[in-house]
Amino acid sequence: MRFLISFFVIFTSLISSATLFAQYPEFNADSAYANNHHLAVNIGPRPMGSRGERASIQWAIDEFKRFGADTAYFMHMSRVGTTNTTTGNSVGIFAGQSDSIIVVGAHTDTDRSGNPGASDNASGTAIIVELARVWSKRPRPYTMVFSTFGAEERGLKGSKYFVDEFEDLDKVILMLNVDMAASEGWLIPFIDLPSHQTPRWLVEDSYAIARSLGNNDLDYPTHFFTINSALGGAGTDHMPFMEKEIPAIGFTAGINHDPIHTLQDRMEFVKKPMLERSGLLVDGLLEKYQKRGVPSVKTGNYMLWEAFGGRIYIPNWLIIIINIIAAAVGVLALLQSRRNDTPPDNAPRFNGLKMFMVLLVVVLFSQFGEMLLQLIKGVRYPWFAPYGSYMSYAGIWALAGIWVAFQIGKRWRFSERGHPYASTGLIVFLTMMAMFSGLSARMALYPALGTLMLGLAVLMPGRWLKVLAVFAGLPLFTLLFHEASPFLARSLTNAGFSMTSFAAGFMFTLMMTAIAWLWFAGAFFSVGYGLVASTPGKAFMDVFKSRWTGVGLLAVIIIYGAYLYGVPSFDAKWKPEVRIQADYDTGTGQSSMTVAGNEYLRDLTIRSNNLLRNIDDTILQDSLAIPFEARWMAVDGVQAVEKSQDDNHTVAANWQVSTTRPWYSLTVNVSSDPAGVEDVFTSLAYSSADNNLQLTWEAEPADIIEMEVRFAIPQDAKLIRTVTATYLELPVPVEAESGIAAITHRTTVTQTDTLVVR
């Protein structure tokens, strides 16, 4: 009888557990898509502090209330760093049986005006709000907090404020974040801080649930995160929680596939099935932990590497040991290489400078294909849309550069002794290890692996084993050309607006060439050693440097180059940008209008009043003869000496700035000549770099701004105040059309005064 009772209890418990959520709402991709549309289209661009951002936050709060949240409110921020603005977070609290809390979040802001942010990050916010609807009707053993964060694009400011100000943070046991979820391709788990990683149980559960949903796209880009974590690059809103040692993970899609941080981040590129993919993954994690509890381990210390169809977690202590072993092997190999280097009589002498010059030839060849197509196609970024195809083309040109290097070697009579190549390569690898160790042990692992392979090739007997040296450069190659290279390269094109002269472009190219030259120096000398010292290397060298290999490479270059010539450099998703900029000085009445692009001004038509300009040239900027006035801003107020002390005046300023049109940003810069501004006191956010006082308001501040500020200046100094307002419209109608580019407008109004202090 006791057995039957026990069996009945267990059986009913299992049935109850299995059906706990069955009768409750499920994640609905149509609902998430509608949320996405509302944010990206109905509300539109949502830069930090803008009306759009505030509307999106208030919409989330209203939705949380509609779903029956026990508490829903706006977590208000009146400043972000040194910027005066109004931003914050939405918070919706759904009480559970326990006061332990699971936080689910996503940021709602966009990086700038004009960007609808459909992927980054209306998609993440859309999922969070849909999950709030779903979980508002389900049993909740844990309390759940849903939050949409502001100011993420300005350095995770909203989520940092949340972890500092949320009064029950000590009860938070888990945080799940969604940043971009609308794109096809791999879904990335963000799990790294410089100090530690997401606990392994949370990573493994994410992969297991993704597989159970039929999704094999969850993919961790090891090499990208090695650099990203060491250099403090791209992050997302789960990281402030991780810094508080709260288990957290973020999911991001579309880094290489979506035109994020551009005007093209529009709803037309949002994929409903991808919203469902991320939504169901987070929902599955929530369901598991609400049923079975959240494990107690809070952090991890490892390097995740996906290999052999699974995941390898390399402990940080093992990375340090590998680096130490590699350094020891490298030093031993260096000593042995130098000890055994006895050149025969009349043998060609090793010349390291010649080798570096040959490496420069290879690096320049890898860039030459792009330069040639730039010239032929007449565009600055021919690879912007077909990035992968151009990287393949660069690789073919690099092989051609190696072939040319072999031909140079015939004339320069390079040494056929392997040890000089090995010694130089080992010195370069060991130096890079020392430099990268200052960033992280994980960064140092890449040159350490190169050191280990080259060192073992030197120490091991037998000419066949020396071929291992040929592969010593692969770790550094994969680090430089990491998985998110397309995203990084496309992001760098925004610098094109500031590189408008040949000199600036040349210096940038020179810098990139120098980085590649130094980065691959160790690999180049390692390959030299492997080719000279190994039997397979010599055989390969004899074949590769033949005339027919050169002819074959030339044929491939011509055929593939012809193909790339016919591939459009830009399309509906990947476009350059053209800015029409108006500048007006209220003091002098001087005005100017320019058009500039990060790409050459191609297929561009501009109309205004009696002006009609057609621009189709390899230029980056041009002036527009369009007269205008923009007396949109007024500056008023008084400044007086409050007290004098030593050689300084303490100035009390009470100023007012007003505008007749909505501005996007306002900056007030205060300086003195000579010396500077010191001892600043004000309730406003400000910065004081180079002894100048600067007050900034973003975005779309109030039409009238009052400021009270005290500061000290030398008694005989001139007080100079410069007020700069930025608007998102032009002072006169201007129509611009481009066959390849997106168009933006800006007007800057400036007033500079030398003030009398009484």
Task: Show the helix and strand layout.
Layout: H1 2-18, H2 29-43, H3 51-66, E1 71-80, E2 83-94, E3 98-107, H4 118-136, E4 142-149, H5 157-165, E5 172-178, E6 187-190, H6 200-212, H7 222-231, H8 239-243, E7 248-253, H9 272-292, E8 302-307, E9 310-315, H10 316-339, H11 352-377, H12 387-412, H13 418-437, H14 441-459, H15 474-480, H16 485-492, H17 502-519, H18 521-533, H19 535-544, H20 547-566, E10 577-585, E11 591-597, E12 604-608, E13 611-615, E14 621-624, E15 633-645, E16 648-659, E17 665-673, E18 678-681, E19 693-698, E20 704-714, E21 718-727, E22 735-738, E23 742-755
Parallel strand pairs: 2-19, 3-4, 3-5, 5-7, 10-23
Antiparallel strand pairs: 1-2, 2-4, 6-7, 8-9, 10-11, 11-14, 12-13, 12-22, 15-16, 16-20, 17-19, 17-21, 18-20, 21-23
Helix pairs in contact: 2-4, 2-9, 4-9, 6-9, 10-13, 10-14, 11-12, 11-20, 12-20, 13-14, 13-18, 14-15, 18-19
Describe this structure in words.
The protein is α+β, with helices and mostly antiparallel strands. Helix content is about 40%, strand content about 25%. Strands 1, 2, 3, 4, 5, 6, 7, 10, 11, 14, 17, 19, 21 and 23 form a 14-stranded mixed beta sheet that branches. Strands 15-16-20-18 form a 4-stranded antiparallel beta sheet, with no helix packed on it. It has a 3-stranded antiparallel beta sheet with strand order 13-12-22, with no helix packed on it. The radius of gyration is 31 Å and the shape is globular. It starts with a helix and ends with a strand. Mean pLDDT is about 90; it is low at about 1-20.
